[in-house]
Amino acid sequence: MSTPSSWIIGGYQTDFARNTAREGTSFADLFGETVRHTLESADIPASEVGVVHVGNAFGQLFTGQGQLGAMPATVEPALWEVPAVRHEAACASGSMALIAAMAEIEAGRYDVALVVGAEIERTVGGELGARHLGAAAWVGQEGQEARFMWPYMFDRLTDEYDRRYGLDDRYVHAIAELNMRNAKLNPNSQTRGWTFTPESFTDDDTANPRVEGRVRRTDCSQMTDGAAGVVVVSDRYLAAHGDLARRPKAQVLGWGHRTVGLPLAQKLERSAGDEYVLPHVRRTITDAFARAGIGGVDQLDAIETHDCFSMSEYAAIDHFGITGPGESWKAVDAGDIEHGGRIPVNPGGGLIGGGHPVGATGVRMVLDAYKQVTGQAGEYQVAGAQTVATLNIGGSTTTCASFVVGNR
To answer: What is the pTM of this model?
Structure first.
């Protein structure tokens, strides 16, 4: 008997350059747009949805609105009484929503799941926003001296890489430059209209000021408003709807999900004798590879990874196995992660270029993987892509999720 599968048959992303506070729009508007267009993309009526899973991390802090699992039914009458739940795992919230949806699909409880990730963050100034996002750290136990919690934490990760392997910041800044460049190809990216100079991706204190330690302005992802959705269906649903054979669809071939303790220091202490700085991240990725039946990164055509900071992508490069541990700079230097390179990474701009509405990011990554393997990624399409992996992290890699999406 074959193992049950989850299939993505459509999805939608809002324009991440939008500012909902300036527009006067709310979560209801964001969900209404995303639910409607996600279902239209999949060409199914809302009445066929059996369950809804929502990813959202900080709704109450930025807007005062909680219980967002109920928002889809609030804006779409046909979802009234459909089971729904909100998932929170910081920046990995959207991936948790997808994993839960897949579990229910593959258990046979439901045949159609709607997954929506959403976040509104541009309701407050930068410093207060940073404090809100800091709730994903171990509050009161780490980062007390930080002005901006997450730049501070990823500066510590930068220093750990430097201590173990040596690290030239030029390669970290080059990742930011690449993702901003890739974002120009993406019609939904937050930074597609932004302009930079070559000095914007250097250690120039005027053009690229420090935020915390070695982390500079263009090394950081953005405060973003946005949402993304996908429709996930079962093998049984596909078999009963022969018309779907002619429509773009992708299979979730494999997944990984691991969770560790909150503090970054604890993670680094536990990995002191390991070849990887974050071995649980490596195992999350290899779990997804194993479930997908692939032997390694060279069987992928592209990667969507979590570049909340340039350093998080630098770490992802070696943890995916593109290089050996501590040698991520080699892939940057050789152009391996560029469009047309050995393994393009974040071809649509990632989080730094594309935007990072926290609860939506994991869903957006999988949506982009679906677009790539079905040939729907437009100007940022990776030619011939059939298998794409994602890595989504919450906090200082506290919650990690990876998916392999394919069109075999």
So the answer is: 0.98
